[in-house]
Amino acid sequence: MNDKKIKEQLQQENIIVPESLQPEQMRKKLEQHKEANTTFSSLHPTHAVNWKKRMGQLAATVVIFLGCMQGFKLIQQQGATLLKAPNNSLHKMNTSTQEQSYEKAYKKLNSYNTASLENKQDQYADQAKDTTSSQKQTSNSTNVRTDGVDEGDFVKTDGNYIYAFRNSYDTNTVSKVEIFQADNTNPKKVSSISLADFKGFSITDMYIKDDKLLLIGQQSDLSKKDIKRIYESDGGNFENYQANSWSDSYGCLYKDVAVAKKAAINTNTIYTRTIIYNVSNKEHPILETSTFQDGTLEETRMVENVLYVISSRSFSPDKINKREPATYIPQVCGQVLNERDVYVEEKETGCNYTVLSSYDVTQKKYIDQKADYGNSNMLYMGKENLYILSMQNEYLTKDSTNTDAMQQEHIVKYSYTNGSMNRMASGTVNGYIFNDYCVDEQNGYLRVVTTYYNTDGIPKNGLFVLDSNLKQVGSIKGLAKNETIYSARFTGDMSYFVTYRNTDPLFTVDLSDPENPVLMGALKLPGHSDYLHPVTDTLLLGIGEETTSNGTTVGLKLSLYDISNPKKVKEISKKVLKNYDDTEVLYNPNALYINTEKKEFGFCVESYGKGTKDYGGYDYLLYNYDEAKGLTLKAKNVLIKDNTGYQELQARGFRIENDFYIVSVAEKIKAMCVKE
After folding, report:
1. Pair 295, 169 in one domain
2. DSSP character string of 492-515
3. Averaged over 672-676, what is the pLDDT?
4. What DSSP assignment string belongs to 321-333?
5. Which residues pair with 290 in a beta bridge?
6. Is 421 in contact with 368 (CB distance < 8 Å)?
7. Pair 389, 356 in one domain
8. Which structural domain range is residue 593 located in?
């Protein structure tokens, strides 16, 4: 096929070919390689094989754009997509050190096989955990944990347009993303993106970065396109095996085990998928890239143009094969991780990996990927390091070296720089961590607030300080017996945290000397604050529930604390919202809108209803805060007045310039500009 015909077909297929892959450029590259003086015999045997493979891929690239040959990895058929495999996808390792990671992983998983589980059933069960990921949101419309570290949510804005997604949970509709043009009257829907082509894909997080719209979620199986490109990258013939090996049944990709091994895909695997659209033309979004990694989605973060994805991958011990790393080592984009990127600690138990990947959205390529043997309960990401936390049970005996706790949090520290991730240290603290707001890093120290139980079964609370190597250097223990942590917040050298049983003690701790933290005070109030947010240097906002003396909830509670004197923290304003029973802010801080310039915050509230004719509903509330005036209601917007259909509604509020917008998602996506 000549150059002219190649160009004509590319145009017909609406494929955008980079200049470097134009037929003229490809011919030049091939001629240059033909004339190269380096011979295969002069290369290391392994390098020679890899060099030949790359030459074959180079020669086949032009034809791949026409869909007629095998060998080019990761081409997405919809849109003009080039997916780049992990930078270490060639994983034939030569050193004994690198071999040890695979060896250790295999031995650990094999120790849990069917034959050896008879005496380990209780231990194995203890490792089970809820892998449900918490939905988080981010952008200038999102309340995030760390400045500069964005978090995904179902609503985003770029300042001119609003993006919102709705997942489908029935067979009659599909998941979709809608784009609205913001104005000061009524937002206009300009386009809608249907995800019907991604079978079983459920969106969890969304980001907007320049003209890139990122959708991250889970998928129960891979598409035929995914499998085709992975299979052909290994030299297979997709058309020949498709008729005999393909199954569309839920959770089963292959009937032919040999094909599954060759394609390096494990059956019955949940995948975490990232889909990227180009939205430079808001009316006509274009699918640009789709990629995936093993495991259940745990967390995502975005720093500048790099997306970090954390997933949890489990393996069946009785189905592993030592000669087939794909049966016991996680994969990113269908490629088994390199041994140098797999970490296995001797004390780790269970059958899970935590899989970490970093992806450059601008360059459309993976930067780094890691697999850490062990569970992951949550992620805390500071400005320089990220921390993976997992709860572990420890059964105390009379001769136990740890007499303080029946649980421990295992912490793994990774540095991250422009997507490059390096494992720095690991350590433990007693107890369990309520959420990532109970963890904070400053000046090389990690500060952690936990609730722990010892052999007496009585909950206690403590604050622990760890150095850069995650070794404990300071602590305060034994606080608030018979109570548990409900919320925490760190601001500079100060820590504030709330415990609760029937009253709400707000503890204040001075951390200016990390090795000698000092308890400054404890303010006891009815109810509890589930979320704390510093709104000024001297004011702390609390959102939670009001309770009676016997613990009965009577409504939502807003508190404004004066923290100017850490020894004498006082509540200067309080609002009890007796007509409302719940708000997403109690378990997802991203649901809170807060604007420190305008001294305002907002959130969606729900009423359960009070009788047979009162079905409850949803409102959006906007408050002002002021040191002198306290908390004042600024605006109220009714979202669902009579919830006879028992809709589950989520809503986000945010400003674009001086206009306030509310986006709600229930049976439909609604965007509105509201007057205060």
Report:
1. yes
2. TTEEEEEEESSEEEEEEEE-SSTT
3. 85
4. BTTBGGGTS-EET
5. 275
6. yes
7. no
8. 587-676
User: pLDDT band for position 64 (50/70/90)?
Assistant: very low
Residues 59 and 103 in one domain: no
Q: What is the mean pLDDT of the chain?
A: 77
Tokens of 583: 């708000």
Burial 55-87 (b: 16+ CB within 10 A, else e): eeebeebbbbbeeeebbbbbbbbebbbbbbbbe
Of 552, 578, 604, the one marking the end of a domain is 578
Amino acid at 190: V
Domains of the chain: total:
4
**CA–CA gap between residue 81 and residue 335 (Å, rounded):** 18
Q: Residue 320: pLDDT band by 50, 70, 90 thresholds?
A: confident
Query: Cα–Cα distances in Å, from 402 out to 69, 124, 399?
Result: 61, 21, 9
Q: In terms of domains, do 366 and 394 share one?
A: no
Angle between helices 224-233 and 238-245 (to 10 degrees): 130
- Please give the pLDDT value at position 171: 55
Residues 487 and 539 grouped into a single domain: yes
In a domain? residue 648: yes
Determine how β-strand 161-166 pairs with β-strand 176-181: antiparallel
How much is the pTM?
0.77
Task: Write down which residue in 342, 362, 378 finishes a domain.
Answer: 378
- pLDDT tier at 31 (50, 70, 90 boundaries)? very low
Q: How far is CA 398 from CA 403, 457, 569, in A?
A: 9, 15, 41
Predicted confidence at residue 429, as pLDDT, reads 93
Query: In 34-186, which ranges are E strands?
Result: 75-76, 81-82, 155-157, 161-166, 176-181
| 390 and 417 together in one domain | yes
- Alpha carbon distance 293, 266 (integer Å): 12
Residue whose entry in the numeric block shows the structure tokens 């997080």: 205
Structure tokens at 526: 């009815």
Residues 524 and 447 in one domain: yes
From 318-322, 488-492, 629-633, the region with the lowest mean pLDDT: 318-322
User: 474 and 513: one domain?
Assistant: yes
For 442, residues 6+ apart whose C-beta sits below 8 A from its C-beta are 490, 492, 493, 511
Band (pLDDT 50/70/90 cuts) for residue 108 is: confident
Longest Cα separation, the chain: 86
Lookup: tokens for 373: 């043997």
CA distances from 256 to 271, 335, 661 (A): 20, 19, 53
Tell me the sheet residues that pair with 409.
391, 429
H or E element that contains 490: strand 484-491
